[in-house]
Design brief:
single chain, alpha/beta, Rossmann fold, six-stranded mixed beta sheet, four-stranded antiparallel beta sheet, 11 helices, about 40% helix, globular
């Protein structure tokens, strides 16, 4: 079942045309990873899907409801249940971890008691391994911990669709692998559809069910991982120019993953 449909999407900023008739279908329950070079408009696409920006032409549908039909979209609770993990985490600097996590519930879930809110906050923070940091401020957290706190803030209101904007950018390999594990864990916990924008090939292989290649303002290719790695698409092959291809890529990933396992088990970031 298609849960997100992007149809003939165009977006321009001044003279810069970023999206040029982009089409994409996202299936319910899958993790779709959108790969591409920096600056090609991957994050712009996420903003279009979640409704932060309006297209110049074309449309996005979520659960059959057009996102650019703002009034009807706001009245549709099924279409609204999306969350986004921003590249910079976007935590409130003046709130501690617990307050950041509870913010959405206090603002929008007025039927919940304080105990119910706290129980959901405790559960979300435990899932991301931050149960002992509730009263720490964002400035006291490492980059990996900030990502975890931002993810807990998403988990707490149980979105059906989770968008990730470059979730491993700026993180060391061990921390990046832990974030990848949490993306998979979050999908399992929420039974959610996930869309991950990245140029991190290892991350894509770890979390993706299907991979999409975004270049020249459109999606050039969408395919399952193995098929994606074997493609003859020139753009994809150029993107992988400095990486192993096909089975070698998968085998290299497995070896790297295996070598990091002891560190992942013992590290707290």
């Amino acid at each position: 079942m298609i849960i997100v449909k992007v149809k003939d999407l165009w977006k321009r900023y001044g003279s810069l045309e970023v999206l040029k008739g982009l089409n994409l279908d996202i299936n319910e329950g899958e993790t779709l990873v959108i790969l591409g070079r920096s600056g090609v408009g991957k994050s712009v696409l996420l903003k279009q899907i979640i409704g932060l920006e309006q297209p110049d032409k074309g449309y996005v549908e979520v659960n059959g409801q057009r996102v650019d039909d703002v009034l009807q979209y706001q009245l549709n609770p099924n279409a609204k249940r999306m969350g986004m993990l921003f590249q910079g985490s976007a935590l409130f600097d003046s709130m501690d971890v617990s307050e950041n996590t509870a913010y959405y519930l206090h603002e929008h879930e007025h039927h919940l008691s304080e105990k119910e809110i706290q129980d959901r906050v405790d559960h979300a923070l435990e899932l991301v391994g931050l149960q002992d940091t509730q009263h720490k401020m964002p400035s006291d957290l490492s980059g990996g911990m900030r990502k975890r706190a931002a993810l807990a803030r998403l988990i707490v209101y149980r979105p059906e669709i989770v968008l990730y904007d470059e979730p491993t950018t700026g993180l060391d390999p061990i921390t990046a692998m832990q974030i990848n594990d949490l993306i998979n864990k979050t999908k399992s916990e929420l039974k959610a559809t996930s869309v991950v924008v990245t140029h991190d090939i290892q991350s894509a292989l770890h979390v993706g069910d299907r991979l999409a290649f975004h270049d020249e303002g459109i999606i050039q290719l969408v395919a399952p991982k193995d098929e994606f790695l074997r493609t003859d698409n020139k753009g994809v092959k150029a993107f992988f120019a400095n990486a192993f291809l096909s089975e070698k890529t998968l085998e290299g990933y497995k070896k790297k993953r295996s070598s990091l396992e002891p560190c992942l088990a013992n590290s707290k970031v």
